[in-house]
Design goal:
The chain folds into 3 domains: 203 residues, Growth Hormone, Chain: A, CATH 1.20.1250.20; 53 residues; 217 residues, MFS general substrate transporter like domains (Growth Hormone, Chain: A, Up-down Bundle), CATH 1.20.1250. The protein has 19 helices and no strands. The longest helix has 38 residues.
Length: 480
Amino acid sequence: MPASTPSPAAPPSSRSLTVMLWLVATGFFMQTLDATIVNTALPAMAESLGERPLSMQSVVIAYSLTMAVMIPVSGWLADKLGTRRVFFSAILVFTIGSLLCANAHTLTQLVWWRIVQGVGGAMLLPVGRLAVLRTFPAERYLPALAFVAIPGLIGPLIGPTLGGWLVQIASWHWIFLINVPVGVVGCVTTFVYMLDSRNPDTPKFDLPGYLLLVIGMVAITFALDGRSELGIQHATVLVLLILSLAAFVAYGLHAVRVPYPIFSLDLFRIHTFSVGLLGNLFARIGSGAMPYLIPLLLQVALGYSPFEAGLMMLPTAAAGMGSKRLATTLIVRYGYRRVLVANTVLVGLAMASFALTTTAEPLWLRIVQLALFGGVNSMQFTAMNTLTLKDLGTGGASSGNSLFSLVQMLSMSLGVTVAGALLQTFTGLIGHTTSANVIPAFHATFLCVGIITAGSSWIFAQLSSDVRRPAKKIDPSERT
């Protein structure tokens, strides 16, 4: 047997496999839950920490950007140190980060502890998925991944509502404290039940390439967010943007001359992958902004309680779950190009429609509006994701899937960054921030986010009109 695929002396018991599957699924649930649970709690956090509700985007950005930064490292660490050790460390770091977040007394402290939490969260799904791949027999791999993916769908569904409920009955601290007992049980279970596997032939980590990617991602985030939240001057913003561009170009030059880059540029020779990846990056900016903007609009501008704001996100999630099958039917009938071009415009229009929100809008109409957005947004994810992964094949699946995960998290971070910057800018132009007068700032922000999203339809227009076949086998956890 090759050294790179070691196996235990005896096959794992059915009980061990079942426990490990639940463990990985719970880790994925914790990761996705914490990506959305804070959104409805931001106004309460702001009041507690003495900040303005419209200046809290860094709490969300810190988590998603850290996850994007750590994704390229997680697989290499698991290969080098072993899946059990890395997964155990991921749960431990995530739990410690959650406990520290709950004890933060300033916004700066909270942002730093969210970074710690993001380091652990970034490794939960990739390493857990790798452990399933190496432990489960081939015939059980896809059903196992499907089982692991279910909690990843439930997390975003209940996250905003659970966050609002915890804030209302207790305090915002409990959205982090609920992770602690789960994390303790997870650490013990990982130590006892998770089988260890590693790859002794793991190549040397591409540290220069990794640092170039990190510099590029962090620089563009600070350039977009720093002006509104940190008061960075225009000249510094320009320097950061140039630094980001230079870092990404330098990575491209670096990747073509090293034997084992983190992400091979050969992936971009696959037309569907390159179009899907770029389309995901820009279309998801709007989709990443909406879960941040909508709870703020409902609480800050319309006077909803945290729990009521969380409940209002349920129509979006429910419609999204119900529309996933429709996307596949439309793709088979009309092709990826027509579906993605038309649906991207519809998503942009759905986002821009929130610019018509008023305090006098009937509740039923607001629910219908949220459901329509959730439906078209979910179809967009399904179409973009299957397009990106469908032609990777076996050889590029691992690297391509990791790059795709990175882009997903980066675009989520950029979405909140762009939304926060726009909201701050328009609020400053208005000059006052009472609940009634801040609505025009939200209107302008939703309109801009909708234009950005609709404009990204041009990327999907570059597809051939005969690309119709959805991916035969994709990782179910990437369907969200």
